[in-house]
Structures are given as structure tokens and as C-alpha cells.
Amino acid sequence: MRNLKFLLLLFISWNAFAQQEPNLARYSTTNEKLKIWLAYTRKIFDAEDYPKLITAAEKGISLAKNHNAYLSRFYIQRGLGYEFTNNQYQKALENYEIAWKYARKARHLKTETTALMRLNYVYYSVQDTAKGKSLIKYIKQVVDTTKSDYTKSVLNGSIAEYYQNNSEYETFIDYQLKAISYKKLLKRDIASTENIGISYLQIGSAYTKMKQFKKAIEYFNEAKPYVKNSPYVSAFLCNYYLHSYVALKQKDSIRKYYNLVYTYPTAKDSLFINLSFANRSMSEHFADEGKINQAYDFAKKSVFYAQKSNDPDIIMEANTNFGKVLNEKGEHKKAIEVLKKASEKALKYDKESFVMINKKLSQSYAALGQWKEAYFYNEIYSKNNDEMMAQSAKQNIANAEARYQNKTKQQKIKYLSTENTIKNIQIEDAKIQRIFLISGITLVCIIGLLLFKQNQNRKKTNLKLQALNQELDEANKIKARFFSILNHDLRSPVSNLIHFLHLQKENPELIDEETAIRMQHKITTGAENLLSSMEDILLWSKGQMENFKPQFRKTEINVLFEETKKHFSSIENIELVFENPENIILETDENYLKTIIRNLTGNAIKALDKTPNAKIIWKACQENQKTYLSITDNGPGGTQEKFKALYDESEVIGIKSGLGLHLIRDLATAIHCKIEVNSKPDAGTTFTIVFKHIDT
Q1: Angle at Cα 72 formed by Cα 71 and Cα 74, nearest 5°?
Q2: CA 437, CA 425: separation in Å to the nearest integer?
Q3: In degrees rounded to 5, what are phi and psi of residue 688?
Q4: Res 86: pLDDT
Q5: Contact 296, 338 (CB under 8 A)
Q6: Residues 6+ apart with CB under 8 A from 327
Q7: 408 pLDDT exceeds 80?
Q8: C-alpha distances in angstroms, 263 versus 42, 222, 246, 275, 302?
Q9: pLDDT greater than 70 at residue 626
Q10: pLDDT in tens, 145-198
């Protein structure tokens, strides 16, 4: 029996749930909608509502559009719907071919595997031999190149099925055993466990075709533990046991397995298939015993259940058996009518049955004295029987030749192995003679190698020490930078705070109540700003300890100006002005630039210590693809020699000088800007920070 559809579909089965249509409006993305809709179509498939599956798959196809992986799966679903809605194989074939195309485009191997499996089945069903042969060639290439155990398990099974359909049972068994070996490597669940059992069952079925029924039963016994939890498969297994025991004429087992078939609850289609199969086997049993009336009753039941199943393969087999019984019973006219019905499908599904049908038609017409018709069908019988026998003989010769070639190869391998052993002994003798020479050379090489390694290790150690010294030197430089930053950013606010406190303590009589309140407010504000600045600097310092490197990000100049104004809010007698009319935003390290601004501001404040109407102006502007930040004071100014540390890295200026120009120089270099200074005695000083414009 060829058409055990549910057995093949266990490869692509999913768990069944309620099939309520999902509301796609609840999902925002196309991918979510496709995922939910695909799960919905699988539930419909499990519920065996194939017309509904076709409609749902069509909606999935319209949703998927350019999503090749989903398109391939929805076309497979629609193909399954057509295949199992009255065996619309041509429509199913069209969908499987499209699914295969999209699966290859998406490089979705699992979906391609399913498409290839179904195409192999349907090409045989529509008798497209050329495409079937070409497909198997491609499937073999996939099996030879893929690393997927799942794909190898499924497609070896498909190759096996191809050879089974061509009655090449030994080749079928070889590929099916390969499929089983890969299935056993896969993660086990209920479906994969049952698939192993199904494969053993199919091998047993092949042995029944070869009339080796005891061997068939061995494989049915192998299948039993794998399918014990599936009533579907167990029912078919019982039927194959029954078929084998009928051939072996074991009456007790025949009755046992016939009764067992009726105990398994299965879906309607498979139930009718199983009942038709069981009653056909019983009909053959009683026909062999010469009990034609009982054979007739069971044959009639077999036809009844076959028609209920709506499966053309099962109907053909039931009618073939019924026609044989009618012929034996002497009802030749009715036998001819039934056998002709069976003949319409027999050539397509089972050539062996087709041969038997024409033989029985010839006998029935001969019994009625219609010799012309008897001769006609006998000619068809003889021709097809001769072809089948010739094919069988050809296959047997091919198998015998293959066995002979295999035996010859084994003998050649054995001879070559003996010859190889002798050569190996000779080689071993030559090796022993070379051992002493090689040993001396090896010893010298080892000593040289050890000396070389010792020298290399010494060099590596020296390099590591140099690297550690460089890291230590860099760490010291970083520490020095941070001490400089702390000194220049905190010295001025702290000294102002101490000045206020001394003034309040030592000369309280100089301060009236209003001034006292104002100074108290300034002291509080100054202390708070000092604390905020300390936290800011220390947190930055902690983050920069291991790698003193700038972190570039968009920085608002207005924010830096505001923080600088707040930092120096305790300064009296100096007017601080900040101008940024263009609201400039720079791509730079905020903390580096902030430190430069604070240091330049602190230096300007120190320079204005004895200047009346002291004023400091910070300006930000953009011109000629460059950004400029400048600080101008109206202090005493100075000569270019005074600012040499900005340009000469060998120049060192003491921290107490208040300039800290070496620190400004290093930080400016790090954030890719330069410092320009314009200063004249008694005319004030202007420092300009120049940034090259960077397109983003």
C-alpha cells in the first residue's frame, strides 16, 4: 500500500491547538503578523481543515510579499491544502515548486527540505518520471553537501521512497536505514520518535513486497516501541502484521491483529484506510483457504471502507481484491465490472496489481466464452507481465553484478592489504636503521632549540619590563596632570573663601550688617560651588585614571560658560562677561575644554589682581569653517616670552605661578585645538582657542 499520507506528513507535523483566527491589528510590525499567521495556518493543518488551510495560506502569501522565507512556507501550506483536498495533485505541485524557489532564494534549508520531500511524492503521484528523476539527482547533491542531520534524515527517506516506488527494494532499504541513523541523532520528541518507527515499518513493508514476511516482522517489531503512543501509526502497524501473518498462514495471529485494528481511535480518513486494508487481508486469507463466501464478505467490507476513505489507491486495491474473489466465486460479469474500475487507477499506482487485474479479466471473459475480449486482456497481461519480469530480472542481474563487484573489490582490498603489510615491515626495518642517526641530530637540535628559547624568553621579559616602565611613567604623568588640574581649578575658589573668612574674623568692625549678610551669602555660595567643582573634577579624574583620553561628544558652549560663571561667582571687583550669540555646539571633550576654560579664567583673574575696573570677556564665534573661543582681560599684559610654555614642550613653568600653561597646552593638543595668545604690556591679554570645523 503506497499512499500512507499521514506517515509522510509526520515529518512536518505541528502540535494542534484551537484554531481561532488571530486579530492581526494587534501587531505593529509585518514580521510579527507573519509569525502569528504562520502559526495559525499550522493549527488549521493539524485540525485537518484543508479547504480552510488553502484560504488562510492565500492570505499569508498576500501578507508576505517580499519576505521569501515566509512566502515559501505559506506556499507549502497551500500545497498541503490542495494535496489533501481530494488529491488535487497538480495544484499542489504548482505550489510546492514555487515554495522550493522561494526557499532557495531565502536560503531556508528546512523549508526547502519540506518542499523537496513533498515534490518527490507528488511527481510520482502525477507520474512525471522525468522531473522525479531530475529532482532525486538534486536531492542527492543536497544530502552529500549539507551538514544538517534533519535534512539528511528527511531527504534520505525521500530517496528511499523514490526507489521503493520503482520497486528497487534493496536500494530503498539502504537509504531508509541511512535516514533512520540520522533521525536517531536528532533531538527526540514525540513526532521524531514516531518517525523512526515509521521508517522501520516502511522497511518491513518493502520486505512484504519481496515476499520475505519473517524478515518483515522483524522490522515491524523494531518499529513497535517507537510508535506505541500513536494510534494512527499503530493501526497501520497492526495491518502490516496482519498482512504478513496471512501470508505465513498463522491463524491465531491473524485473528489477533484483525481485532486490534478496530481498537485504535484514528481520524476518519486513516480509520477507513485501515479498516479497508484489514478486511482485504482477511478476504485474501479466506480465499487462500478456499472459503470463498467468507472471502466475499470481507472483500465487500474492504470496498465499502475504501470508498469511505475517498483514497484512489485504497479503492483500487480493494476493487482488485473484490474482482479476484468474484472471479473465484463464479460471478464473472460482476467481476469484470469491478476489475475494470480497478484497472483505471492500477497502472498509475501499482503495476503488479495492473498485471493481476488483466489476468483476472482475461479469465472472466474466457469463463463467459467471450474469447476475443479474453484474448485482448491476456495480451495486455502477457505484455506487462513480461515487462515486469524483465525489469525484475534486470534488477536481479544488476544486484548480482553489484554483489560480485563488491566481492571482487573486497578480495582486491585483502590482497593489497597483505602487500601493504609486507611493505610496512620493510619500512620499519629501514626506520630502525635511521633511528640512531636521527636521534643524535635530534639531540643537537633540542639543545640548540632550548638555548634559542632561553634567549627568546629573556627578550620577551625585557620587553615586558620596558612596557611596565612605560606604563608606570605614563601613570606618573597622569597623576601630575590631575594634581595640576586640582591646583589650578580649586586654588582660586579656596583662596577667596579663606580671604572672606579671615576678613570676617579679624576685622568684623569694618563690616556693616548689610555687607555681612552679602558676604555670608557669597561664602555659602562659594563653598557650594567649590564642593560642586570638586565633585565634578574628582569624578572626571576617577573615570580617566586608567586611560587619560578625551571622550568626544556634542558640547554646548553655553553650558560651559554657565558652569565657569558659577565656579568663579565668589570673585569680587572683577566683571565676568560671557558672549555666545550663535549658541555654538562643539564636538569635543566637555571636561578637557572645561578645564582649559577654568585655567585661563583663573590666570586672567590672577593677572587682574591690582587692576582697577577689572573685566574679563569670554566670546564664542564661528568664522571661515572654524570655531573660536577667546578670553580677553584688561590687565597689565606681558611679552611673548612669558607665554613660551604654550608652544615649547621643553619649557616648564611652576604650578605656583598661576599660569599652568603647560597643562593648557597638553589638554588643547588632546582635543585637537590650538591656543593663540595676543598680549602687550599695559594693553591686556587675549587667549584664543581655535577649533577646526568638522562636518558631521
Answers
A1: 65
A2: 20
A3: -125, 125
A4: 82
A5: no
A6: 335, 339, 360, 363, 364, 367
A7: no
A8: 29, 21, 20, 11, 17
A9: yes
A10: 999 999 999 999 999 999 988 888 899 999 999 999 988 888 777 667 888 888
Amino acid occupying residue 321: N
> In 3-state terms, what secondary structure has residue 551?
coil
Of 249, 620, 473, the closest CA to residue 481 belongs to 473
Distances (CA, A) of 106 to 32, 96, 354, 444: 18, 15, 43, 60
CB 580 within 8 A of CB 561: yes
pLDDT in tens, 300-311: 999 999 888 888
Burial class (CB in 10 A: 0-12, 13-18, 19+), 441: exposed
**DSSP-derived secondary structure for 34-45:** HHHHHHHHHHHH
Those residues whose C-beta lies under 8 Å from the C-beta of residue 600, and which sit 6 or more positions away, are 631, 664, 687
Q: What is the mean pLDDT of residues 15-38?
A: 82
CA atoms within 13 A on the CB side of 634: 11
Closest CA to 117 of 137, 134, 86, 96: 96
Which phi and psi angles does 61 have, rounded to 5°?
-65, -40
Query: Cα–Cα distance between 202 and 188 in angstroms, integer?
Result: 20
Least confident of 12-16, 104-108, 267-271, 612-616: 12-16
Amino acid occupying residue 59: K
Asked if 596 and 648 count as a contact pair (C-beta separation under 8 A), the reply is no
Cell of 564: 565657569
Is the pTM of the predicted complex or chain greater than 0.85?
no
DSSP, collapsed to helix, strand or coil, labels residue 528 as helix
